[in-house]
Design brief:
Radius of gyration: 15 Å
Low-confidence stretches: 1-18, 20-35
Number of strands: 13
Mean pLDDT: 84
Number of helices: 4
CATH class: Alpha Beta
Length: 198
């Protein structure tokens, strides 16, 4: 399902995905016009900072990817439904867009161990351009707050969490919001359309 221009009203509410949640989360910069696959953000705000580490312990910052397009997502490795599909679609886009990177931030500090992330990357054949970032709750919560992400434990080790993706341009500005049903072809169409606008 595509985000629609009717979502312009403040605040934009997104149901938490995952897998069992019913809570809501707000987005600070609502989209205003539809794009081929998402909703364009006309104000082009600077994307909030992300500074965490990956499963190998390497420090990764969103700002490391200036000069490239970045899709930012919020996932967890034990998700039974939504997260694997998001990862699969973003990974497919990565394979076709050399100037794209993915920064996926964990919403499950307990379950997203380095071993779990390595297994997730292996099982879903994630490319090296897919950066899955983890940390303790104390490290992750400030990132969730800056990005207006809600995350709460659910039954049977699931996590209810905000499920959206943001396409960030090479200058570090937010350009497009996608919902949980983001498709690779949507991201690729948006990249093709927006590349000349930076």
């Amino acid at each position: 399902m595509r985000l629609r221009s009717a979502l312009v009203t403040l605040p934009v509410l997104l149901a938490l995905a995952g897998c069992s949640g019913s809570q809501k989360a707000t987005i600070s910069h609502p989209p205003a016009s539809t794009t081929p696959g998402g909703a364009e953000i006309p104000s082009k705000p600077l994307a909030p900072a992300i500074a965490l580490h990956d499963a190998s312990g390497r420090s990764v910052r969103l700002s490391d990817f200036r000069g490239r397009w970045v899709a930012v997502a919020f996932l967890y490795t034990h998700c039974p439904d939504v997260c694997p599909l998001i990862a699969q679609n973003l990974n497919s886009a990565l394979r076709q867009a050399p100037d794209l990177r993915v920064v996926a931030v964990s919403v499950d500090p307990k379950g997203d161990t380095p071993a779990a992330v390595r297994a997730f990357a292996r099982n879903h054949r994630l490319t090296p351009a897919f950066h899955y970032l983890i940390g303790s709750r104390a490290q992750l919560e400030p990132v969730w707050r800056r990005w207006h992400v809600a995350a709460a434990p659910g039954p049977s080790a699931t996590v209810s969490h905000s499920s959206f993706e943001v396409l960030v341009d090479p200058t570090g500005h937010e350009r497009v919001y996608y919902d949980a049903q983001v498709r690779a072809k949507d991201v690729l169409q948006d990249l093709s359309r927006l590349r000349g606008t930076v």
